[in-house]
Design a protein that fits this description.
The structure is a single chain. It is built from four helices and 18 strands. It is of the alpha/beta class. It has two domains: about 140 residues, UDP N-Acetylglucosamine Acyltransferase, domain 1, CATH 2.160.10; about 40 residues, no CATH class. It is globular and about 65 Å long.
C-alpha cells in the first residue's frame, strides 16, 4: 500500500490524471500499471501491475493485481482479480512466518520473503463483461466476449463468448453459435479504428441470431 500512496503523489500520476480525467482521483495504481487514455477507472479501485486497454471501465471498489484487461471490457464493482496466495504446505498459512512486510503489521522475518505469494498473471480478453462481486483466481484466461455472472468465483479458464456463473463458475451457455463465434473472433472488431466502428455503429445495435446478421468483417 505504501507504493500505491507514493505513486499517488508522484508527477507521473499527475500527468496520467491530466491526460485521462475519467480516472477517479480516489483510485490507486502503481508505476507498473498501463492505463489507456480511453479507459475509465472509478473510485476506490486498486490496480497493481495491471494493464487496462481502450474503452474498458472498472467499477468502484475493485482490486486487480498482475492482470491484463483487453478492450471494450465492462467490469462492475467489487471485482477482485489476482489475489495473493498463501502456502498450504507450511505449518501455518499466516504471512507472519514468511514475509517481512505482511498484513499482520508485525515483522518476524528478517531478509527476503520465504514464499512467493504473487499470483500468476491473469488475461482478460476483449469485450468481456464481469458482474459485481466476482473473484478471479490467479493464472486464469478469460476469452473474448465472455460474460461472468455476478457473485461468481472463477477458478478455471473461460472460453470465448461463453456465459459462466456460480461458485466455482461453470459454463451455463454460449452467447452465439460456433459459426458466429468463429466469425467474431476472426473479425477482431475491437482492433478496428475508431472511425470504422463509428461508421458501422448500427451493426452493433441489433440481435445476432444468424451468421448473415453480422455486417462486420
Amino acid at each position: 500500500m505504501f507504493e500505491l500512496l507514493l505513486n499517488y503523489f508522484s508527477l507521473s500520476r499527475i500527468l496520467i490524471q491530466l491526460k485521462n480525467p475519467k480516472i477517479s482521483l480516489f483510485s490507486f495504481f502503481d508505476k507498473k500499471c498501463i492505463i489507456s487514455q480511453n479507459a475509465r477507472i472509478e473510485r476506490m479501485v486498486i490496480l497493481r501491475d495491471t494493464k487496462v486497454q481502450d474503452y474498458s471501465y472498472i467499477g468502484h471498489s475493485s482490486n486487480f493485481l498482475r492482470t491484463n484487461i483487453g478492450k471494450f471490457c465492462s467490469i462492475s464493482r467489487n471485482v477482485n482479480c489476482g489475489l495473493p496466495s498463501h502456502p498450504t504446505h507450511f505449518i501455518s498459512t499466516s504471512p507472519i512466518f514468511f514475509s517481512p512486510n505482511n498484513s499482520t503489521g508485525t515483522n518476524w522475518v528478517k531478509g527476503d520473503k520465504l514464499y512467493d505469494d504473487l499470483p500468476s498473471p491473469i488475461n482478460i480478453g476483449n469485450d468481456v463483461w464481469i458482474g459485481m462481486n466476482v473473484s478471479i483466481t490467479s493464472g486464469i484466461n478469460i476469452g473474448d466476449g465472455a460474460v461472468i455472472a455476478a457473485h461468481s468465483v472463477v477458478t478455471k479458464d473461460v472460453p470465448p463468448y461463453s456465459i459462466v456463473g456460480g461458485v466455482p463458475a461453470k459454463i451455463l451457455k454460449y452467447r452465439f453459435s460456433s459459426d458466429i463465434i468463429n466469425q467474431l473472433q476472426k473479425s477482431e472488431w475491437w482492433n478496428k479504428p475508431d472511425q470504422y466502428l463509428k461508421d458501422n455503429l448500427s451493426n452493433f445495435q441489433h440481435n445476432i441470431d444468424h451468421l448473415d446478421d453480422m455486417k462486420i468483417s
